[in-house]
Amino acid sequence: MRLPRDITGEALVKALKRFGYKIVRQTGSHIRLTTQSGGEHHITIPHHSPLKSGTLNAILKDIAAHFKISRDDLLKQLFD
Predict the structure, then answer these.
(1) Going from the N-terminus, what domains does the chain have, and what CATH number goes with each?
(2) Which of 3, 27, 32, 67 is 20 to 30 Å from 10 at the Cα level?
(3) What pLDDT score does 80 carry?
């Protein structure tokens, strides 16, 4: 599945709530999220519009590795 090219940081934060991520803090334009699902995991999302494709890809790969699913499966769950 192709990466969405027009996703904002705010939209990604909302989508990640499905996986139990909650906002812990925000420093400048970066939002720190944490989940306890599958063990504690932290991720930082830039509050940019839109997110650069490389940044989005790195974030999604990190989350997919934490939940032990493929990046494509993660994309389907987040954006379908």
Answers:
(1) 9-74 (3.30.920.30)
(2) 67
(3) 79
